[in-house]
Design a protein that fits this description.
With about 575 residues, the protein is an alpha/beta fold. About 30% of the residues lie in helices and about 25% in strands.
Length: about 575
């Protein structure tokens, strides 16, 4: 706590109302203020509030009760915002669902969550839902929309976008035993929403799924109290005045990082810019210039995509100066690249690395807003949050400065996983400590550095190799844009692994032998013998998840398959 900013209170008190009350109050306080911008259209809080009341009325008229689940499978758009807020105000549980999932994955998540309603795109309905609706007995209704339904473009431009397949579309048909209705038809319902009483400590508000290394994803149950605690923790940490900010994030709303940022804007009566396609950095930069955001939150890979887009150089200096804080999370951000981003965007001391997970609503730590930021660390434990680092072998508290598994306690920690008591008891021990599965080191000032996932840590001839550390070293080479370190079984040494590096070079750096040789020479000079990759692969692209993390699961599977073939 000695490293806390002076404005931060180490112990906070939290409201006793539910999010339904807090968000409704925040919206109604600023009805004539923009709630969000989406593709050339502005939505005032008044409009979003009216739309949510109509959606609540629709849900309640169709038998929706407190605690029922609504799964939302949409990109970032006003329809997502409306369905999500309406679900909360109706006392329900909102469950994000990626539109990129396969039919089997959608069926699993819908059935595991017990969702009664699903809100999705017409394209997803045609290509995915028609294959699985008969396998989802609890699903009572599907609300279908097109991504262009609430765009501000002219009808001619929208029609052209659909014709050129730039705007996805799909055929929607009735389904026996299910209510299938258009989102715009729901908006024709006369609002008559009934209020709902919430117990913040016990009533769920979110059921968000987190992937594992094997098997099905786990549904993380988060209460109103969990999310409220994290909102208050972050609000206190960054010390910004309510109602004064414009928020920009390309994190998808079906990922908790994106949903939390959305919650933050709603909770604080702020405005937010909805980015439906995070890969479209041209659009993101255009919105940045036009709307002048004050808070920006993204995954590191997207910050680098922005940096590599020539349009970023056209952002006026006064627009860059308007940004008060850049938040980076969900994946490691190598220190060298943070400095590069800050220098290019005139953002010295503005980028804050944070750390968390779906199970913690999501944030556990953050670098100080005003005080000393230690680049390469994820900062300090948030107020009311206790972190303990356990030795990987003994399970006892590790000495200061030594690596170990990060465990934590706090009001933001989940009560567990839906329908998975064994996984819950494995993740949360008898004393209430959440075992994160991340390997971290705490320094003498309390700052934490995440050095790896436990599952990503390699054992090479008895030595621990932390993939994040190796990646951080290699990415300092001027030719390397992106690198992923994975481990392969060493057939000659049972229990040992071989270090493999998968590398994407910057544009303009071809991969002739001399470039590869220079990288290997650099690695030999900067890494220990057991850390130095034995296998090198140079690729034009490295697969990313929907959020923008390097997808090591895909890389491992491909590498192991190739190893078996040889």
């Amino acid at each position: 706590m000695k490293s806390y900013d002076t404005h931060v209170h180490p112990v906070l008190q939290f409201p006793r109302e539910g999010l339904n009350v807090l968000i409704s109050r925040a919206m109604q306080a600023v009805l004539d203020k923009p709630a969000c911008w989406f593709m050339a259209r502005t939505f005032l809080y008044r409009e979003i509030h009216d739309m949510t009341q109509r959606f609540i009325t629709f849900l309640q008229a169709n038998g929706f009760k407190k605690g029922d689940v609504v799964a939302i499978s949409l990109p970032n758009c006003p329809q997502y915002l409306v369905a999500h807020v309406a679900t909360i105000l109706a006392g329900g549980v909102s469950s994000g669902l990626s539109p990129l999932l396969s039919p089997d994955e959608v069926a699993y998540q819908v059935n595991d969550s017990g969702a009664k309603f699903l809100v999705t795109l017409d394209a997803v309905f045609e290509k995915v839902l028609t294959k699985i609706l008969d396998k989802c007995p609890n699903l009572q209704g599907v609300v279908v929309s097109n991504i262009a339904d609430y765009m501000g473009f002219s009808p001619v431009k929208v029609a052209l976008g659909k014709a050129l397949k730039k705007i996805p579309k799909g055929k929607v048909t009735p389904w026996p035993g299910k209510l299938v209705i258009g989102f715009r038809d729901v908006m024709k319902v006369s609002p008559n929403a009934m209020p709902v009483d919430i117990d913040p400590t016990h009533d769920l508000v979110l059921l968000y799924y987190t992937g594992g290394t094997t098997g099905h994803p786990k549904g993380v149950e988060l209460t109103h109290a969990n999310i409220i605690a994290n909102l208050i923790q972050v609000e206190n940490w960054i010390d910004l005045e309510r109602g004064k900010d414009i928020c920009l994030s390309a994190f998808p709303l079906f990922h908790l990082a994106g949903m939390f940022f959305c919650f933050y804007a709603l909770f604080n009566s702020d405005s937010q810019i909805l980015i439906p396609n995070p890969r479209d950095t041209d659009h993101l930069v255009n919105e940045w210039i036009a709307k002048r955001p004050t808070i920006i939150a993204n995954v590191p890979s997207l910050y680098l995509m922005i940096l590599n887009n020539p349009r970023a150089a056209t952002i006026p200096r006064d627009v860059l100066d308007t940004v008060r804080i850049y938040v980076s999370g969900a994946a490691p951000f190598p220190a060298e690249l943070i400095r590069k981003f800050e220098n290019a965007m005139h953002a010295e001391n503005k980028l804050i690395e944070v750390y968390g997970m779906t199970e913690t609503s999501p944030l556990i730590t953050a670098n100080p807003f005003k005080g000393k930021k230690k680049i390469g660390t994820v900062g300090l434990p948030l107020p009311n949050t206790v972190i303990r680092i356990l030795d990987l072998e003994s399970g006892k508290p590790a000495p200061l400065g030594s690596p170990g598994e990060v465990t934590c306690k706090g009001p933001q920690v989940t009560r567990g996983y839906r329908n998975k008591p064994e996984e819950t008891s494995t993740a949360i021990d008898e004393d209430g400590w959440l075992h994160t599965g991340d390997v971290g080191v705490m320094d003498e000032d309390g700052y934490i550095t995440i050095v790896d996932r436990v599952k990503d840590m390699l054992i090479v001839s008895g030595y621990k190799v932390f993939s994040v550390h190796v990646e951080d070293i290699l990415v300092k080479h001027p030719a390397i844009e992106l690198v992923a370190i994975i481990g392969l079984k060493d057939p000659e040494r049972p229990g040992s692994e071989i270090v493999k590096a998968i590398i994407k070079l910057y544009a303009g750096y071809p991969a002739p032998p001399e470039t590869q040789d220079d990288i290997k020479k650099y690695a030999g000079e900067h890494l220990s013998k057991y850390e130095n990759p034995k296998i090198w692969e140079f690729r034009d692209e490295i697969p990313l998840t929907a959020v923008g993390k390097v997808d090591k699961k895909v890389l491992r599977a491909a590498a192991r398959q190739e190893q078996q073939l040889h």
